[in-house]
Hints:
By secondary structure, the chain is of the alpha+beta class. It has helices at residues 73-89, 106-118, and strands spanning 8-16, 19-27, 32-37, 44-50, 62-68, 95-100. The longest helix is centred in the middle third of the chain and has 17 residues, at 73-89. This is Proteasome assembly chaperone 3. Keywords: Proteasome. It holds the Pfam family PAC3.
Amino acid sequence: MAAESIINSRQKEALINGISTQVVCTVFSNHILVVLTQYGKIGTIISLLPDATSSDISKPMFTTKVLLGKDEALTHVYAKNLVTFVSQASGNRPVLLALALKEINIEGIKAMKEMIKSCQVW
């Protein structure tokens, strides 16, 4: 009889804009980890936290913070666009996003978001 894994994780690979893109979603007791890469590396790690001071608890504001890597304005925009729905769908749990992308455009963001949705473990 095979032992069941304590950590629930799913992964997927697809071509986005002609570039091999991998996503791995893993749920832990206090965070959800989403790794999205076109390099096979972790890259920049961004924390996405629901803001407890939001007046409407069903639609919280989110705070992003780069924990490792280049802290650029677009990194925060990408993080919020890619994984806000993950936090909301999991009851406003914090999300860690590891992002290593070669090319980003609006069509790519939409496709990556669908990849993340297909790996739902929360």
